[in-house]
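Sample intake sheet
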Amino acid sequence: MMPSHVTLVEVGPRDGLQNEKQPVATAHKVELVHRLQAAGLREIEVTSYVSPKWVPQMADNAQVMAAIRRAPGVRLSVLVPNLKGLEAALAAPQRPDEVVVFGAASEAFSQRNINCSIAESIERFAPVVAAAHDAGLKVRGAISCALGCPYQGDVSADAVEDVVVRMKAIGVDHVGVADTIGVGTPGKVQAAMERALKHYPLVEVSGHFHDTYGQALANVYACLEMGVHTFDASVAGLGGCPYAKGATGNVATEDVVFMLHGLGIATGIDLDALVDAGAFISSVLGRAPVSRVARAVLAKREKAAA
């Protein structure tokens, strides 16, 4: 049965912008978050506390968090790769409500990306999860390359379940099944989701889909059929994966909202205001939004104004 309401976790400010080669000003990042809040987004992944050497775009994490005027009911999350990152997030002028940790479902990706096995990578997060809980923060676990890997190719549902079990064992509160390189198709997505739902309740499982092969909306729909009602999405279709060559951006938030509203599913999001937010950050980056819905809405507006 289809859910009546879907929660969208907006990842554009973090996952979307981390890949940009050109520096994005702190003020523009903050303005994007404010516009997203105004559009009705209530879950926003803002930044990451990683080494600026690895992700220079996120070097202003503390400044961004300090400058955000959080709207009532909005929850902010940040990605932390280790205890040092968590400590920095906790020391910031404005603390997040949630932290995100990550682990790959592909052994090859884990080795190439962070030079250790999947088991080692998850175990490293055990003290991070414990410390986050001690600080009163929720912990979300992202399972990257859950549907395919740029190095090893196919990733099995068994491999996804193995990571789910490991994340649960260290106390992760919520798991997100992520198609990092966008090769997943609906049947494969449902098989992976089934494994996550064996160990976590429906409310604590989400999907994160990239649109490399044009399957992201179909994969969201496949999850809706299972009752899954939380998804990551990125305004204007920003983002990719710096470690997955050729991977295009996350599914565009505007496209997901348009589909959900067409299905009669509530999101609490104002599509016109969301399109405006995407147009704003796209103009900062000097290009058009990737979102097809945004392009259509903007073209329609332009025609009406002519």
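Comment: The chain is about 45% helix and 15% strand. The first helix runs from residue 12 to 16.
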